[in-house]
Amino acid sequence: MINKTVKNVDEAIAGINDGMTLMVGGFGLCGIPENLIAALVKKGIKNLTCISNNAGVDDFGLGLLLQNKQIKKMISSYVGENAEFERQMLSGELEVDLVPQGTLATRCMAAGYGMPAIYTPAGVGTEVAIGKESRKFTFNGVEKEYLLEYAFEADFALVKAWKGDTAGNLVFRQTALNFNHAMAIGGKITIAEVEELVEVGELDPNFIHTPGIYVHRIFKGEQYEKRIEQRTTRKR
Predict the structure, then answer these.
(1) Sheet bearing 117-120, strands edge to edge
(2) pLDDT at residue 55 above 90?
């Protein structure tokens, strides 16, 4: 029987070293691999390149790694609510590659599909296209220009799921699916933390989002804050 469980988060991050490239699941504050990020902060791994939709907020998610200056480059689609991310980018302390959100997701999935590159119309005629190869295609009777974008190459992918089994099959809850599946299939080594870890056969196969073939290590996380990024209340 295949068993991909590891004892704890420290065992899960074994092999992640300075200077590596990481895919990190999550969108805003939803579906963030909190335990894995905390372990990287504690271990002091630095000079990381992180591929993620955004970087959490100042004191949560990838924002914790940014505070400690452990990230040298962010590949993201959104600076968002993270003031420290914005400060480091504007000051030149942090290298930032802003990528259209759909392109970011597709470049992750292309890595999982074994496709070295894709063509996309996103970014044509903008700063995104500077220095990139383009080509015109006729599709559905319409000729358009497309940019060549390369699949990401990440040493590890860090994702967070609601449930998982010992063979690495993952189920995400509602919007926490976000970038987690795309990251999970795109990393050379994928590490998943889950809220509930069960035995093989306990998950309904009809509801598995990421097959275990993409996951190399899995463990049960300890605690989750599950913050709300924006909370609005109505004034009386």
Answers:
(1) 117-120, 142-150, 134-139
(2) no
Print the domain residue range for 59: 9-101+152-220
For residue range 92-150, list pLDDT tens digits in order: 999 999 999 999 999 999 999 999 999 999 999 999 999 999 999 999 999 999 999 99
| φ, ψ for residue 70, nearest 5 deg | -95, -10
Query: Do 196 and 161 touch, CB atoms closer than 8 A?
Result: no
Tell me, yes or no, whether 28 and 144 share the same domain. no
Kind of pairing, strands 142-150 and 117-120? antiparallel
Question: In this structure, are residues 52 and 74 in contact, taking their beta carbons and an 8 Å threshold?
Answer: yes
Q: 92 CB contacts (<8 Å, ≥6 apart)?
A: none
Task: Provide the CATH number for the domain around residue 180.
Answer: 3.40.1080.10
| Residue in this structure with the two tokens 């963030």, named with its chain if needed | 32
Residue 126, φ and ψ in degrees, nearest 5 = -120, 180
- State how far the Cα of 111 lies from the Cα of 150, in Å rounded to an integer: 9
Both 79 and 169 in a single domain? yes
Closest residue by Cα to residue 57 from 79, 76, 42, 73: 79
